[in-house]
Each structure stands twice: as structure tokens, then as C-alpha cells.
Sequence to fold (75 residues):
Amino acid sequence: MDLECPLDTKEAPKLDTDYSKYIIMTGLPVCDEAKSLKFNKLLIKLFQKQKYDFVTEDLIEHSWNIVDGVKKTTG
Fold:
């Protein structure tokens, strides 16, 4: 039985490799979900100060880990 990788089918969505649409930030503080919401507001404020008005809360994503049973950002 041959198995076909679902990503190789013609119906599979194509990966968008245009990273010019993203800002990747590392070295951010590790925080829980509640503090991440406050941190998002701070990031938006800082970006708006630099005239980057397109940054909104729904566009900010964090990577998460479970640390001692608590969901925290990876920084």
C-alpha cells in the first residue's frame, strides 16, 4: 500500500514563504496568559509610536510552553 503525503497533493494549500509580511521578535520576557495580554498592548503602543499603525492585537502571536502546569510564552 503506497501512502501519499497530503502536502504533495494538488489540493494541498501552498506554503506562503514571503516573510516580508512578518516581524519576528526574540528575547521577549516569559509571561503567563494574563500578562501576555498586557504585553500585547504595550507592543502595540510601542509600534504605534514608531508609526507602525498596522500592528493590532489580533495580529500578534506568541509561542507557548507549559511550565509547572502554567501556560507561558517562550519569550
